[in-house]
């Protein structure tokens, strides 16, 4: 192995020298400032090459595949985040992980020595002689793992390199996984562009990271059809966006838009929308003692109805009636019985301009009527030297325009919603209607119906993360904005803690797309947590998992989950002591998770008083800074930490019901290496009985 390591070390130095020399030469060439299109193109290509070289400079590659294509000689292929070639002969030095030939590195499992891939020229087949994982960090070769050697004894060591990567402690950002993409993940990443992918993934299955790598793949594979600035990522909140913000830059991708659905709709709608305070609402839903079961049920029924396909169909019917009766009856007359009949105007509206949205048709008709008045007036100018007739005609025209529907989008929605049997009267505060987030999809749908969709709001691809918290109406209205039904929709139904606005079954989304354009994937392997943590979490959710498959841990064993009974007066000292212990053990990200926001705030004050520096995560926080965090349990979904301690897991805070079980499941599955559960002498019935309480 020493010889193998030395050979790879020499190869690394050779590659680094090449990259550094190329960078030096290219950076000496000044940027082209002229107007010659050919020179501009060449300059852009040089900049792109510089970007690829800079991306490769610290860690040029992560794998090696020795492949002998049938009828050709054996070629060692080194795979990295970016492709690098020799400018003199255009031979590849490093293969981009997204290239067709690189797919073999991920799909080859060592079951036989044959492999192949689909190139632009057709299928290519051959023999694999070696598959080698290489860990290169800061230009230093850290590890070499052979997962397949032809003719050798190939023990199942594929996971050795994966476990090495998984065992690393995390900082405050999600990272790329190009060196450890698994077979089932690679199938998703390399799926065709015009497909709507729906991914059910257990906690830690890498679904978010896979979706981001899919974006990088689409931008590489479909360079003429997919642009970064026409891709949108929808995430649950700003802090989550901050948490995932490093992945695409690590892959050399910039310019992808990222937002929340609420922010995006508020930007799209031209009139100001006032939303009800969501903190109070989440307290009502999540926090014990804040509302009755009946109040929660009423909240869920109304919110789910507004997000349902039934409400969408209701609005479609009402808007069809609005369109049918949009042209006022009676026509429009000026002088000498000069008249446009309502039939003529209706023909313009329903036939000539039928391909345009309603308000644009309205504008076209008003402009056409104004021109008609001008043309008719030319014929009578001699007997109307002071334009009196024209002035009267224009006044009639102003009056006629007022007969048309001129309501704002919000008023149209409120009027139509009131006519339904389910939607309750909207709250009015300071003469403003207060809306909820689930009103935004219907509002945007009505806006699109009336005004159309501007070019800058049409996308080549859309990612929806934590999609179990989206409604069918939200996905439908996004579908109007996406070319070719190109979606990556991902989530976990066992984490649908916002059940009042989300879904219970992925079929609610599947039915929105043509059957031949939708693909469903299930990711059951958890790469995040240790075996002990996953088994504990699976027991927590067992009674409520239904037909969903529980998480299968990658065999990475760790310390047992600790369940400790603690008196209230000792809680802060226990937590502080645990934090200090985790910090000394090298844990970079630590989370103290409470049941409520109020409890998190109180504990935060106590920890500061005990000298523990940390960050308090609140609903309006937009950045995740890593280190030590205190947060209510419903705000940590989608994140991961080296060590997690769950506080006050007793019968009062965590009773035996579906929502609470899902919340506790979310909390448990945030931990990578260490999980501690603090309870009282009356522990939550959701805690596994087999786990000893100390």
From TrEMBL:
<dbReference type="InterPro" id="IPR027417">
    <property type="entry name" value="P-loop_NTPase"/>
</dbReference>
<feature type="domain" description="UvrD-like helicase ATP-binding">
    <location>
        <begin position="180"/>
        <end position="530"/>
    </location>
</feature>
<keyword id="KW-0413">Isomerase</keyword>
<dbReference type="InterPro" id="IPR014017">
    <property type="entry name" value="DNA_helicase_UvrD-like_C"/>
</dbReference>
<dbReference type="GO" id="GO:0000725">
    <property type="term" value="P:recombinational repair"/>
</dbReference>
<dbReference type="GO" id="GO:0016787">
    <property type="term" value="F:hydrolase activity"/>
</dbReference>
<keyword id="KW-0547">Nucleotide-binding</keyword>
<dbReference type="GO" id="GO:0043138">
    <property type="term" value="F:3'-5' DNA helicase activity"/>
</dbReference>
<dbReference type="Pfam" id="PF00580">
    <property type="entry name" value="UvrD-helicase"/>
</dbReference>
<dbReference type="Pfam" id="PF13361">
    <property type="entry name" value="UvrD_C"/>
</dbReference>
<dbReference type="InterPro" id="IPR000212">
    <property type="entry name" value="DNA_helicase_UvrD/REP"/>
</dbReference>
<keyword id="KW-0378">Hydrolase</keyword>
<keyword id="KW-0067">ATP-binding</keyword>
<feature type="binding site">
    <location>
        <begin position="201"/>
        <end position="208"/>
    </location>
    <ligand>
        <name>ATP</name>
    </ligand>
</feature>
<keyword id="KW-0347">Helicase</keyword>
<dbReference type="GO" id="GO:0005524">
    <property type="term" value="F:ATP binding"/>
</dbReference>
<dbReference type="GO" id="GO:0003677">
    <property type="term" value="F:DNA binding"/>
</dbReference>
<dbReference type="Pfam" id="PF13538">
    <property type="entry name" value="UvrD_C_2"/>
</dbReference>
<protein>
    <recommendedName>
        <fullName>DNA 3'-5' helicase</fullName>
        <ecNumber>5.6.2.4</ecNumber>
    </recommendedName>
</protein>
<dbReference type="InterPro" id="IPR014016">
    <property type="entry name" value="UvrD-like_ATP-bd"/>
</dbReference>
<dbReference type="InterPro" id="IPR027785">
    <property type="entry name" value="UvrD-like_helicase_C"/>
</dbReference>
<dbReference type="GO" id="GO:0005829">
    <property type="term" value="C:cytosol"/>
</dbReference>
């Amino acid at each position: 192995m020493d010889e193998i390591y030395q050979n790879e070390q020499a190869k690394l130095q050779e590659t680094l020298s090449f990259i550094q020399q190329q960078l030096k030469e290219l950076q000496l060439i000044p940027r082209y400032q002229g107007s010659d299109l050919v020179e501009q193109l060449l300059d852009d290509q040089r900049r792109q090459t510089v970007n690829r070289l800079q991306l490769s400079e610290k860690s040029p590659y992560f794998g090696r595949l020795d492949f002998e294509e049938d009828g050709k000689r054996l070629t060692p292929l080194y795979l990295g985040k970016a492709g690098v070639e020799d400018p003199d002969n255009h031979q590849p030095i490093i293969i981009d992980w997204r290239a067709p030939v690189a797919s073999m590195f991920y799909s080859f499992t060592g079951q036989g020595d044959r492999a192949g891939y689909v190139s632009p020229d057709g299928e290519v087949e051959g023999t694999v002689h070696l598959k080698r994982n290489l860990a290169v960090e800061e230009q230093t070769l850290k590890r070499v793992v052979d997962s397949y050697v032809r003719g050798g004894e190939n023990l199942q060591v594929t996971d050795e390199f994966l476990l090495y990567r998984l065992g690393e402690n995390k900082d405050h950002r999600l990272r790329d996984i190009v060196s450890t993409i698994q077979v089932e993940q690679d199938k998703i990443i390399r799926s065709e562009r015009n497909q709507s992918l729906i991914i059910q993934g257990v906690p830690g299955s890498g679904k978010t990271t896979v979706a981001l790598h899919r974006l990088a793949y689409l931008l590489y594979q479909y360079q003429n059809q997919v642009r970064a600035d026409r891709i949108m990522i929808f995430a649950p909140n700003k802090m989550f966006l901050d948490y995932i913000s490093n992945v695409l830059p690590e892959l050399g991708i910039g310019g992808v838009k990222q937002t929340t659905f609420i922010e995006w709709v508020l930007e799209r709608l031209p009139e100001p929308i006032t939303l009800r305070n969501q903190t109070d609402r989440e307290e009502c839903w999540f926090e014990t003692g804040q509302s009755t079961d009946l109040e929660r049920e009423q909240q869920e029924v109304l919110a789910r109805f507004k997000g349902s396909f039934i409400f969408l169909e209701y609005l479609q019917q009402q808007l069809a009636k609005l369109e049918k009766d949009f042209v006022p009856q009676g026509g429009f007359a000026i002088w000498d019985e000069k008249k446009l009949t309502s039939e003529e105007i209706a023909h313009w509206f329903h036939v000539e301009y039928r391909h345009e949205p309603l308000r644009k048709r309205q504008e076209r008709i008003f402009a056409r009527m104004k021109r008609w008045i001008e043309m008719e007036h030319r014929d009578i100018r001699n007997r109307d030297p002071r334009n009196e007739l024209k002035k009267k005609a224009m006044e009639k025209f102003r009056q006629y325009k007022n007969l048309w529907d001129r309501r704002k989008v919000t008023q149209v929605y409120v009027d139509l919603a009131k006519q339904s049997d389910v939607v309750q009267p909207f709250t009015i505060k300071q003469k403003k209607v207060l809306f909820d987030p689930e009103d935004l999809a219907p509002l945007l749908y009505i806006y699109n119906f009336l005004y159309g969709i501007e070019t800058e709001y049409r996308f080549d691809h859309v990612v929806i993360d934590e999609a179990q918290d989206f409604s069918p109406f939200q996905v439908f209205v996004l579908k109007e904005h996406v070319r070719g039904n190109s979606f990556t929709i991902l989530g976990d139904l066992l984490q649908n803690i916002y059940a009042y606005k989300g879904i219970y079954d992925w079929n609610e989304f599947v039915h929105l797309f043509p059957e031949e354009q939708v693909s469903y994937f299930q990711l059951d392997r958890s790469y995040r947590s240790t075996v002990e943590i996953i088994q504990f979490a699976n027991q927590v959710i067992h009674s409520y998992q239904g037909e969903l498959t529980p998480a299968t841990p990658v065999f990475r064993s760790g310390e047992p989950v600790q369940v400790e009974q603690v008196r209230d007066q000792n809680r802060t000292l226990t937590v502080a002591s645990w934090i200090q212990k985790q910090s000394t053990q090298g844990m970079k990200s630590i989370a103290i998770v409470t049941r409520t926001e109020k409890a998190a705030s109180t504990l935060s004050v106590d920890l500061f008083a005990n000298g523990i520096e940390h960050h308090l995560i609140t609903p309006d926080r937009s950045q995740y800074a890593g280190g030590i965090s205190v947060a209510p349990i419903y705000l940590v979904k989608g994140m991961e930490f080296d060590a997690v301690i769950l506080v006050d897991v007793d019968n009062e805070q965590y009773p035996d019901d579906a929502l609470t079980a899902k919340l506790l499941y979310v909390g448990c599955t945030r931990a990578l290496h260490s999980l501690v559960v603090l309870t009282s002498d009356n522990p939550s019935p959701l805690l596994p009985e087999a786990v000893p309480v100390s």
